[in-house]
Design a protein that fits this description.
alpha+beta; Rossmann fold; Thrombin, subunit H; 5 domains; 13 helices; cysteine-type endopeptidase activity; Pept_C14_caspase
Length: about 725
């Protein structure tokens, strides 16, 4: 079982310096986090390292802190704590790093990496003073890289990093403090250029590896097995406030602990982020948290859980809510959204707290009226409607609904006709689809030929449901038999998926005034140069390319890139600079390079993909448009599954389990001498883990996977293992 180690750093008191004043809630943040770890997660105290600097006149817990062995968060002590945890932890252990204090920018001491006149993003230790050390992004990158690198180069730890601090800028407000420099300006003093983290050559080399040799900003290690959650974007500030009406805390830390203690477990970092975003923006509209890395990982865990994307409630007023999506996201008046508790399964309609209908539209936000039970069929739970709730589109307005025609074929032997036996069944089969469509807010049926339909549903010559858009749509697998009672509902799901894909694909605004505000081009992987013919780009499966963005306007812009893959009608987001938040904030004059990987879907010779760039001035949540592949089935919980434990080992992982048939137990006599398969008709997809791609282990994979295949064949399983390396 993996161990859990935490490094908690909180700094209220700073030694006198010209840039950073004292704070009031940073140490309280650390105490709040430590209390949660010890009481809720049962983490042993000896596995939690605390570095705190309380205000001298409020240090009522001095004896307690001394007894716990808390050290002051000096530059040397912070680095030593990083190194100590890295040495203690074993491969696969969980590490959590939380910093509450000042953050800022300082003249870079790495001009060969950043460029002359640029800055290092930094954390401010308590002993910064007039001539002390910052903990710079280049140093943090090496400290994290040592933790997250594969075991042959580092420790292979699973790391979460949370910084409740500013990147730059700051001022004092009436209701709290800003965690940044006093005047918002970078520190331009000559600071020490040596480092206790590593020698200069190692720091420079690691930074170049991490940033792919581009002059980017940030302290991001590789994006496997880590999560970074920051209090704000580079151009914003991190606020302190008295959220409970008593003592100050950092906004990010307060709402994080509030979420973890008030919402049922099993949250992913993406779900946590969405609630934090709503809560923080409801009070501080200019502070938007940022999420990088594995957003689909469970909070403080090592398991991955599929992410359900949605819009987020960012403001609540009597009888209405404000959502973080508007005209830029393709919304229109009349669109209805279901509001769910944080962490809910959106397929469980019983969990809905209310239904809201869009009544007012702005560029990137919208106002929605809470509907009555007579209007929506849902009795609104008013006292539970609050910022941070997920909002899932439930019913599209009439102009966005997709029209479906249910088509009866003639009897005959041609491809577009049916044999008599199927022709006799088609009316009843299509009626079942009609009944399922009546309860769906995305689809509407058209009859006759007066109105054009987006899709046509008919019966194929093999007795399967057939969806056409001009011609039958390919890759709708598995085939849906008209004799399967679950098929009509699945047909409707596929129609909704296709409709959502085409609605998102149609989003466009060629007359936008931002057309000349940004440079956007695709570059090759070798020289990072534009392709010779940008209108006819051809890549081999497995090739990589770069997207270059540059803000050439005089204001910050929020951008997002969506990748449309039509083979399986999939929409994914391409994280810019690794940022998995709803958008990336591109500052004036800033340029980014985002590396992309292109792969032809299995079973296809080629595919055409479209990258769409969305640019707005305001909030830009396009994640709710994300769609999984159309053939991806929902993972169902298996009652019990026996696979030989010595086959599993550590060389591969179970990726997906799906079924369209009822579960039924093996009725044969159980042989106690070997594992048995209790569930039939399950399809298993097994993939090799990237960390085991060496030749020797690759050969072991084939032996192991063939053994499982042989085992299942002996058990006469109706589905055979499909495996790929």
């Amino acid at each position: 079982m993996a161990n859990f180690y935490a490094l908690l750093i909180g700094i209220d008191y700073y030694q006198p310096n010209p840039y950073y004043g004292n704070l009031k809630g940073a140490v309280r943040d650390i105490d709040k986090v430590a209390d949660y770890l010890e009481k809720s997660l049962k983490i042993p105290t000896e596995q939690i390292t605390r570095l705190t600097s309380p205000l001298p006149d409020t240090n009522s817990l001095a004896d307690v802190r001394s007894a716990r062995g808390e050290m002051p968060p000096t530059y040397q002590n912070i680095v030593n704590a990083f190194k100590s945890i890295t040495e203690r932890a074993k491969k696969g252990d969980l590490v959590y790093i939380h910093y509450s204090g000042h953050g800022g920018r300082v003249n870079t001491i790495f001009p060969e990496l950043k460029g002359e006149g640029q800055y290092d993003e930094s954390l401010a230790p308590m002993d910064l003073g007039n001539d002390g050390y910052y903990l710079r992004d280049v140093e943090i990158a090496t400290l994290l890289k040592r933790m997250t690198d594969a075991p042959d180069q580092g420790k292979g730890l699973i790391v979460t990093v949370i910084f409740d601090s500013c990147h730059s800028g700051g001022a004092t407000r009436n209701d709290g403090e800003i965690r940044g420099s006093r005047d918002g300006e970078p520190d331009t003093k000559d600071r020490p250029k040596d480092s206790v983290v590593a020698n200069r050559d190692e720091l420079v080399e690691n930074w170049r590896i991490i940033t792919q040799n581009s002059k980017k900003e940030g302290w991001l290690p590789n994006q496997r097995e880590y999560v970074f959650l920051g209090a704000c974007r580079p151009s914003e500030v991190a606020n302190e406030g008295r959220f409970d009406g008593k003592d100050p805390n950092g906004a990010l830390t307060y709402w994080m602990i509030d979420t973890l203690t008030s919402v049922p477990g099993g949250l992913t970092y993406q779900v946590l982020y969405d609630r934090l975003k709503g809560k923080i923006q409801s009070k501080y509209p200019s502070q938007l948290p940022m999420l990088l890395g594995e957003g689909d990982r469970l909070v403080f865990g090592d398991q991955i859980k599929p992410v359900q994307y949605s819009l987020t409630v960012i403001k609540v007023a009597p009888g209405k809510v404000t959502l973080d999506g508007g005209m830029a996201q393709g919304l229109s008046r009349g669109t209805q959204f279901a509001l769910y508790p944080v962490g809910s399964d959106f397929t469980d309609k019983q969990k809905r707290l209310a239904v809201a209908e869009v009544t007012e539209l702005q560029a990137s936000t919208s106002t929605a009226k809470i509907l009555s039970v007579e209007e929506s069929g849902v009795a609104a739970v008013i006292n539970q409607i609050q910022p941070g709730l997920p909002a899932v589109m439930e019913s599209a307005p009439l102009d966005l609904k997709h029209r479906v025609r249910l088509h009866l074929k003639e009897v005959g032997n041609k491809e577009y006709q049916l044999p008599q036996e199927l022709a006799d069944k088609q009316a009843a089969a299509l009626e079942k689809v009609r009944q399922k469509m009546q309860r769906n807010g995305w689809l509407t049926e058209v009859q006759g030929n007066e109105e054009e339909a987006h899709y046509q549903v008919a019966i194929g010559r093999e007795g399967e449901y057939e969806i056409s858009s001009g011609t039958p749509i390919k890759n709708l697998n598995p085939a849906l038999s008209i004799d399967d009672a679950e098929s009509p509902a699945e047909v409707v799901k596929r129609l909704v998926h296709l409709g959502k894909y085409q609605t998102a694909q149609a989003l466009d605004n060629p007359a936008s005034e931002l057309t000349n505000a940004i440079e956007y081009e695709l570059l090759d992987d070798d020289e990072k140069q534009p392709f010779p013919d940008p209108n006819n780009i051809s890549l081999k499966s497995g090739d990589r390319a770069y997207v270059r963005l540059k803000n050439i306007s005089d204001e910050p812009l929020n951008v997002a890139i969506l990748n449309f893959e039509p083979t399986w009608w999939k929409i994914s987001q391409s994280p810019i600079e690794g940022d998995r938040g709803a958008f990336y904030s591109l500052q004036q004059g800033q340029q980014t390079l985002t590396r992309l990987h292109f792969q032809v879907p299995d079973g296809n010779q080629q595919s055409e993909e479209t990258l769409k760039l969305f640019v707005t001035r305001g909030i830009a949540n396009f994640q709710w448009l994300i769609l999984p592949p159309l053939n991806q089935q929902k993972v169902e919980e298996v009652d019990q599954l026996f696979v030989p434990s010595d086959y599993l080992g550590k060389t591969f992982e179970l990726l997906e389990i799906s079924t369209r048939a009822e579960k039924r137990k093996n009725s044969r006599t159980q042989d106690k001498s070997k594992p048995i398969l209790l569930v039939y008709k399950y399809q298993f997809t097994v993939r090799c883990l990237e960390r085991y791609q060496e030749k020797e282990l690759y050969n072991e994979h084939l032996i192991v996977l063939n053994a499982i295949k042989s085992f299942l064949e002996q058990e006469k399983s109706e589905k055979i293992v499909e495996y790929k390396c």
